[in-house]
Write a structure and sequence with these properties.
heterodimer, A: 337 residues, alpha/beta, Rossmann fold, 2 domains, eight-stranded mixed beta sheet, globular, B: 318 residues, mainly alpha, two-stranded antiparallel ribbon
């Protein structure tokens, strides 16, 4: 048994429900999600598109776009429930305590302002700062995220930067006030493969330097393996498995996690990639019971009837599945089958 | 550190490529737009200094009728009267020059008021959406379904009844005719709904862009997002619409005056047309030249608006 080396909890999400009240019906994008983020860790949040991983992170910042609304749950951050905060209190937390980096850097920067202006905006939003101080800080930040010639480039507009450089600007902006928690929502999806690695290295490096917690939101199991210490697997608005990354890859307990791992191409495995049959379900009328049961090859009658709860199957390894005891699922090593 | 960046040489050339620099470069290549700009600059110049070039002063200075005292009524264009004299013996050339400032006053002030209302309504409706949007847009539509010219005529007539002959008010040392100002206010009140809808549409578009979400995530409040982040992004559309609104306001005021509902004491171009309408067959020049002044000015602002639209519209950008 490994000791709990990072046990101090920074953020604790409990029974979070964020629904979208659309004309077609209520979309239950996040439906009863609980997990926590520990101080200084890198947590992976994985799942297919539409599994609710982005909505969950937006819920923490309370910036879920209309017609979405968080209707239930608690989000405990540094001893206070964020869902009980006023909008003003949230504004002072956003950017300063909790920040987020979005997927596409070319649209997450305001096109009409220079990089200097955008970074100064963030710096001056939460504190009094002179133009000269801000300038120094901006150059420092740009150096920190590895943008060369900061002093000249700070006067340029976002469209004059390449994709990877834009993402570095976005990272600099998110880190300007040294938040304690950073959500990175698919930060490399819109970038070239060669740049992806650089940006990931940068994030890892900055995380260590600044001692913050990082949440990597992605559907890329490779990024999860490379960067995270713990993983939360989401499916259709529910959490199906939480585990240390190594444990999860070695011994997944949930059939969905196993399918995700089996869908990753590997050179040392000649088997054809396994496809998860079917699509992610309609979240207006989600399947009864376990939401994965229509696509699950091990589903029983009970799976259709009642949604499973997260169970601790071994220390720090939780799974929401009735059948976990009866299953021996193959992980990344592919040996246990 | 390794970077995926461009070479510094390539970058230096793009240094000044701000949105406005790019737009100006594009605008300069558009001949029609530049022609519009020249016309507009000329009109602005004459609006500011036209009074000094006019051979005769303006009403109510009695010398404005000096041609009449010389017996020069309805004289065709000549060396003495470049654009002829009108039915009551006033120099048409002088009248047009004096009228330029009123045309600009109408165009600019109507546009400022129109835009102020339109931006406020459009921004609130577009940004907040939901029932706020519904209420504001239904209210806007109420204004849109009015037969606006008819309402303008009625309102102008009702409100100018109290404005006496030659009443002026002082604004920063400039005496402004009260009657014309009432016309301006009425025009603005009936002019904003279309622009408000345009601005609402732009807000709807821009508020969905990811950088708005990013700014929210960085702790920006609604006011900051509206004024600092969304408004500058739609400034180009606002500038285009504003220049077209100036043209439209000048035209509308001319129509109101021509129909005899304007401020009879203020010789706007439309008023000159109205005053000389009865002499059209014997003194066509007193109708033609003020009409041309309106035409050229409106045309100039329209060309400028189209040119700006081409230069600023990112969808047409090559």
């Amino acid at each position: 048994m490994k000791e709990n080396y990072m046990s101090e909890t920074l953020l604790k999400i409990q029974d979070l429900r964020t629904y979208f009240f659309t004309e077609a019906g209520i979309v239950k994008a996040v439906d009863g999600v609980s997990f926590d983020i520990k101080k200084g860790e890198t947590l992976g949040l994985v799942g297919e598109s539409g599994s609710g991983k982005t909505v969950a992170s937006l819920s923490v910042l309370r910036i879920v776009p209309k017609p979405g609304k968080t209707i239930e749950g608690t989000i405990e951050f540094k001893g206070e429930n964020l869902l009980k905060n006023t909008e003003k209190e949230m504004q002072s937390i956003r950017g300063k305590e909790i920040a987020i980096i979005f997927q596409d850097p070319s649209s997450s920067l305001n096109p009409v302002y220079t990089v200097e202006t955008q970074l100064r905006d963030v710096l001056s939003a939460h504190q009094k700062i002179t133009k000269e101080e801000a300038r120094k800080k901006i150059i420092e930040l740009m150096n920190l995220v590895g943008i060369p010639e900061a002093e000249t480039r700070m006067h340029e507009y976002p469209h004059q930067f390449s994709g990877g450089m834009k993402q570095r600007v976005a990272i600099a902006r998110a880190l300007a006030l040294q938040p304690t928690l950073l959500f990175a929502d698919e930060p490399t999806t819109a970038l070239d493969v060669t740049i992806q690695a650089q940006v990931l290295d940068l994030l890892e490096d900055l995380k260590k330097k600044m001692g913050m917690s990082l949440v990597m939101i992605t559907h890329d199991m490779g990024i999860i393996a490379k960067m995270t210490t713990r993983v939360v697997v989401m499916y259709a608005g529910n959490v199906c498995e939480i585990a240390r990354t190594l444990d999860l890859y070695e011994r997944p307990r949930h059939p969905y996690t196993a399918s995700l791992l089996a869908a990753v191409p590997r050179l040392d495995r000649k088997k054809t990639l396994k496809i998860i049959p079917g699509n992610i379900p309609n979240l207006i009328e989600p399947p009864s019971g376990c939401r994965f049961h229509p696509r699950c090859e091990y589903a029983t009658k009970k799976c259709e009837e009642e949604p499973p709860k997260l169970e601790e199957v071994e220390p720090d390894h939780f799974v929401a599945c009735y059948e976990w005891k009866n299953l021996t699922l193959s992980g990344e090593t592919g040996k246990s089958e | 550190m390794k970077t995926e960046n461009d070479k510094p040489i390539a970058r230096q050339k793009r240094r000044s490529a701000s949105q406005w620099a790019v737009a100006w470069r594009r605008f300069r290549r558009n001949k029609a737009g530049v022609a519009g700009l020249i016309i507009v600059l000329a009109v602005v110049f004459l609006g500011l200094f036209g009074d000094f070039f006019a051979p005769y002063p303006a009403f109510p200075n009695p010398h404005y009728l000096d041609p009449l005292y010389k017996g020069d009524v309805r004289k065709p264009p000549s060396a003495t009267y470049p654009l002829g004299t009108d039915g009551i013996g006033s120099d048409v050339y002088s009248d047009i020059l004096h009228g330029t400032k009123y045309a600009l006053y109408v165009g600019v002030v109507v546009t400022i008021i129109t835009m102020a209302i339109a931006i406020t309504v459009g921004a609130i409706a577009g940004y907040f959406g939901g029932w706020v949007d519904n209420v504001l847009m239904r209210f806007t539509e109420v204004f849109l379904v009015f037969p606006s010219l008819l309402f303008i005529l009625i309102f102008v007539r009702v409100f100018t009844l109290g404005a006496g002959v030659g009443t002026y008010f002082n604004f920063l040392g400039i005496s402004v005719p009260v009657g014309l100002t009432i016309v301006v206010l009425v025009l603005a009140i009936f002019n904003w709904p279309g622009d408000a809808r345009m601005i609402r549409g732009e807000f709807l578009r821009v508020r969905e862009l990811e950088f708005v979400e990013a700014e929210k995530a960085l702790g920006a409040g609604n006011r900051r997002i509206i004024f600092r982040h969304i408004l500058p992004n739609i400034l180009s559309s606002i500038i285009v619409v504003a220049s077209l609104t100036i043209a439209y306001a000048i035209l509308l005021e001319a129509a109101v005056s021509f129909l005899g509902f304007g401020d009879a004491n203020t010789m706007t171009w439309g008023q000159i047309l109205e005053n000389n309408f009865n002499y059209m067959q014997t003194a066509w020049w007193a109708e033609l030249f003020p009409g041309l002044a309106i035409l050229i000015t409106v045309f100039g602002f329209n060309l400028l608006g189209d040119g700006l639209s081409d230069a600023l519209n990112p969808r047409l950008r090559d």
